[in-house]
Amino acid sequence: MTRLTSSAIAALIALTTVSLGSLGTARAETQAELAAKENDEGKELMYADKFPEASKKFAQASARVPEVKYFLNLCTSRLNEGQLSLALTACNAAQLNSPNPEQKDRADKLIERINEEAKKQNVKIEPVGGGGGNQNQPNATVDATHPPVYAPVAVQPLQNLVVAGPPEHRYTWTLGFDLLGGGGQVGQANFYGTTFAGFRVKGDYLLDAASRIGGEIYLQLSHLGAGSEDVFPVDSLDIFDFGLAVYKHFCPGGTPRLCFTPLAGAHLSFMSPQADNMDDTGSQVFNYAAIGGRLEGSLDVAFGRRYEHVFQIMIGANLYSPVVSSSGVFTASEIGLDKGGATGYVGIGYTYRFNTPLGSTPFIVLE
């Protein structure tokens, strides 16, 4: 009986130990979950330009779990509310908590931005207590040769440095490349072929992030083969388009990585009829000019942490007027370009999105 009682007591102690250990683990997980929730709430407040409230949430999250991402978000919100010294403290804390290379780069850029704001406002900044500031580092001053005026709080920056919302096809500018193929007719019938292949290099700029409306500049080269009849003095036709377009992303809420993007544009076209007997350089001079338009719809699928990689499938049409200006040997009618035309195409493309405004300081993506 004594032996059985001792065994029961030992089992009870073991069970109690396991339960207490599980309780400790559950409590640690609960703190992490609460920190993640507060971080998400802080990001939503940032997107709504409620910076002091966001800072409070990020500070609570970092107090629960001292992760680098919480300090970076706190640094960003403090910067946006004009609390430059507190922002510097939070960025220092991020650097002291073993950031990965990308996080370290973000912290460095934020500190650079903090110093730019301080210099612009003639404010001296230094890390303050709390938030993991490194007390062994010298104070971060702006200009040692011209000591600025002290101020307890700087003025809030005029520009929200945070990307305006979670990753939802929001960016600043892009570079992309498309491969195209299709058919149509440009110029008089039978002068040139009815199939074409080409490519396009393009750059986009998001004009209105909230509405996802942007502008595009593009360069396109198309080649049409020989016509069905041997027409003197031409064979094939190359067309170089330089154009501007506007577009809008439509992104269904249930599929945030997927957008449909209609586009409309206008271009100036330089046409080069090809034939061995036209001139000594093979007529690669694009000396016949026309004007035209472009209509397109694309399906865009985005990948990456901030949707920076975009693959596209597109369908569209290029429209061309008759030649409006010529410096060639032959008249537009002699080479069949006194009549306009159109080509339809399908294509695939890749675009890389940048969140750095041209000539400005990078936007910050919250984690």
Would you give an account of this structure?
The protein has 367 residues and is α+β, with helices and mostly antiparallel strands. The protein has two domains: 1-162, Serine Threonine Protein Phosphatase 5, Tetratricopeptide repeat (Alpha Horseshoe); 173-354, Porin, CATH 2.40.160.20. Mean pLDDT is 79; it is low at 8-12, 22-27, 130-154 and 280-284. Helix 3 (68-81) runs parallel beside helix 5 (101-121) and helix 4 runs antiparallel to helix 5 (101-121). It starts with a helix and ends in a 13-residue tail after the last strand. The chain is 29% helix and 32% strand. It has an eight-stranded antiparallel β-barrel with strand order 1-2-3-4-5-6-7-9. The chain has helices at residues 2-47, 51-64, 68-81, 84-95, 101-121; strands at 173-186, 192-208, 213-226, 236-248, 258-274, 288-303, 309-320, 325-326, 341-354. A hairpin with a 5-residue loop joins strand 1 (173-186) and strand 2.
What's the number of structural domains?
2
Radius of gyration: 31 Å
Q: Which residues sit in consecutive blocks of at least 5 with pLDDT less than 50?
A: 8-12, 22-27, 130-154, 280-284
> What kind of oligomer do you see?
single chain
CATH class of the largest domain reads Mainly Beta
Q: Which strand order do you get reading across the main beta sheet?
A: 1-2-3-4-5-6-7-9
Mean pLDDT: 79
Helical residue percent?
25-40%
The sequence of SSEs as H and E is: HHHHHEEEEEEEEE
Shape: elongated
Q: How many H/I helical runs? A: 5
Specify the structural class: alpha+beta
**Strand content range:** 25-35%
Q: What's the number of extended β-strand segments?
A: 9
CATH architecture descriptor text of the largest domain? Beta Barrel
What is the makeup of the main sheet? 8 strands, antiparallel, barrel
Distance between the termini: 61 Å
CATH topology of the largest domain: Porin
